[in-house]
Amino acid sequence: xxxxxxxxxxxxxxxxxxxxxxxxxxxxxxxxxxxxxxxxxxxxxxxxxxxxxxxxxxxxxxxxxxxxxxxxxxxxxxxxxxxxxxxxxxxxxxxxxxxxxxxxxxxxxxxxxxxxxxxxxxxxxxxxxxxxxxxxxxxxxxxxxxxxxxxxxxxxxxxxxxxxxxxxxxxxxxxxxxxxxxxxxxxxxxxxxxxxxxxxxxxxxxxxxxxxxxxxxxxxxxxxxx
Length: 226
Description:
The protein is of the alpha/beta class. 34% of the residues lie in helices and 21% in strands. It is built from six helices and ten strands. Strands 3, 4, 5, 6, 7, 8 and 9 form a seven-stranded mixed β-sheet that branches. It has a three-stranded antiparallel β-sheet with strand order 1-2-10, with no helix packed on it. Strand 3, helix 1 and strand 4 form a beta-alpha-beta unit. Helix 2 (50-69) packs across helix 3 (89-95). The two termini are 23 Å apart.
């Protein structure tokens, strides 16, 4: 691999050989319903708390991704996963019984991209099989970042609805994969803080970083084309 600025390019791109995505009832009623591998009609997924439900759906997504990749937990060198809970406990409980060396990541909305980026670099460095995953749950997120639903607080118009769902993927080296999506490059962004303090308006908090990153990527590609 070689690095140009904040972007890492792979000479032999790692390949996503398996993936899965699951979601909750509300997401299953939307236009992307057919893209999910499973839809949980029960927001607690049969568990005693929303936090345990988040772990359960993440575990389900990871098992589905491993099955899709036709590998077992014993074949995986590392698993990188994160969520929106303190100490990434959603991920910890989801993968604790799989026996895979784990690396916890916290990137909030960027966790899936962050885990894929780091997994790709691990594969490029010699790992033969790396799994990644992330999850969120509307109810556990509200309790974590704002107010428990039981509080009955009014949500302002700028409030976002955190998705109830989980996603997972499995990566392998280019020469060990029989088809799949290649990760040709990864770009790691920098922290961009314009002082947004409204916890109910995360769109405004994240937008500056997106604009800054996309501008840099566009500038880089334009310079190389010229």
